[in-house]
Design goal:
InterPro entries: Peptidase_M42, Peptidase_M42_aminopept, Peptidase_M42_dom2. One of its GO terms (biological process) is proteolysis. GO terms for molecular function: aminopeptidase activity; metal ion binding. The structure is a single chain. This protein has about 350 residues and is α+β, with helices and mostly antiparallel strands. It has nine helices and 18 strands. The strands form three sheets. Strands 1, 2, 3, 12, 13, 14, 15, 16 and 17 form a nine-stranded mixed β-sheet that branches. A six-stranded antiparallel barrel has the order 4-5-8-7-6-9. A three-stranded antiparallel β-sheet has the order 10-11-18. The longest helix is centred in the middle third of the chain and has 16 residues. The mean pLDDT is about 95.
Length: about 350
């Protein structure tokens, strides 16, 4: 690995390691507020927990919304059994196969408790157990405490996140919630860099994206945007077992300009303009066609009426796992492309189709 990363690595570590599952984004929202507030003219949050920092533009009649969701996938405790083991309900999309033998953190009102999701030794498994398909309902958390201590310290409704710190691996950063904290970093960095924009820009740290794009849906009614731009992660299946056409994006090839996902077909005038900006500024980019999975882009495009919508994505390996991985150059390119897109938006571009 050569040199320092071309972004605020310390802030990214804070963002990744601060908990914030859907509906309970309080801690991560407080951190984002503290980082955004010095760089915006005003800041507010709504009843769903979406935070909006606004920079007034020279043309106050033209509004751009930049959205990056702050929530991470996690769990809520639904039952504490008589032996002190915790049963879970998922908050967001988990693959149960990756949960065995993981470390977790249980967040109560008063403390953060380390826990583990155990795995029974293979020596004692029956053939039927070996062939069974894992499900979330079968997952149990072990706190290493006796049942009485667990009952005193943990209750139904407490929250669970994966345990993991941001790490550098070669040219990558890897961590438990890069989806979507890398995009939150990009949004904060854009607010830092944006100086006297021609249009008013609303930086929205949206809530509850991982459970159905809910925060963005409500925000789209509250803000009458003329243009919306979402920042999120996207699939990079550039690993063994996938054909070239199945990769969606590749790490190290630049920021991804979204053409579609299962929630949206982006405005083609907008995504072509973003592509031209990347070429003019010599910013590495690739085009994203995501066959499954939705983002805030779709909700913002149609909540409160039809709006021109686009998205810039950060290619990410191993999405929705504790080892999500992003290439340093792709994140830097995403930040540069977002800033360039906002700097060159003057409210005169015609995005009507």
């Amino acid at each position: 690995m050569s040199g320092d990363f071309d972004f605020d690595h310390e802030l990214l570590a804070d963002l990744v390691e601060t908990p914030g599952v859907p509906g309970y984004e309080d801690r991560i929202r407080a951190l984002v507020r503290a980082e955004l507030e010095p760089h915006v003219d005003r800041i507010r949050s709504d009843a769903m927990g979406t935070l909006v920092g606004t920079i007034e533009g020279a043309n106050p009649a033209y509004d751009v919304v930049v959205a990056a969701h702050v929530d991470e996938i996690g769990f809520i405790i639904k039952y504490v059994d008589d032996e002190g083991f915790l049963e879970l309900d998922a908050l967001g999309g988990w693959d149960p196969r990756i949960l065995r033998a993981q470390r977790v953190t249980v967040h109560t009102d008063d403390e953060h408790l380390p826990g583990i999701i155990g795995a029974v030794p293979p020596h004692t498994l029956t053939e039927e157990q070996k062939e069974s398909k894992p499900e979330i309902k079968d997952v149990r958390i072990d706190l290493g405490l006796d049942a009485e201590a667990v009952a005193e310290r943990v209750s139904v409704g407490d929250l669970v996140t994966m345990d993991g710190r941001l790490a550098r691996v070669g040219e990558f950063v890897t961590g438990k919630s890069l989806d979507n904290r890398v995009s939150v970093l990009a949004m904060i960095e854009a607010a830092r860099r944006l100086d006297a924009p021609d249009v008013t820009v609303h930086f929205a740290a949206t809530a509850q994206e991982e459970v159905g794009l809910r925060g963005a849906s409500a925000l789209g009614v509250d803000l009458d945007a003329d243009l919306v731009l979402a920042i999120d992660t996207t699939v990079a299946n550039d690993v063994p077992g996938f054909e070239p056409g199945e990769r969606v994006t590749q790490l190290g090839e630049g920021a991804a300009i979204k053409l579609k996902d299962s929630s949206v077909i982006t405005n083609h005038k907008l995504h072509r303009r973003i592509r031209r900006i990347a070429e003019e500024r010599d910013i590495d980019y690739q085009l994203e066609v995501l066959p499954a999975g939705g983002t805030d882009t779709g909700s913002l495009q149609r909540a409160g009426g039809a709006r021109p919508a686009g998205a810039i994505s950060v290619p990410t390996r191993y999405l929705h796992t504790p080892t999500e991985s992003v290439h340093r150059d792709d994140l830097a390119a995403t930040i540069d492309l977002l800033v360039a897109t906002l700097e060159t938006e003057d409210g005169t571009h015609d995005y009507t189709l």
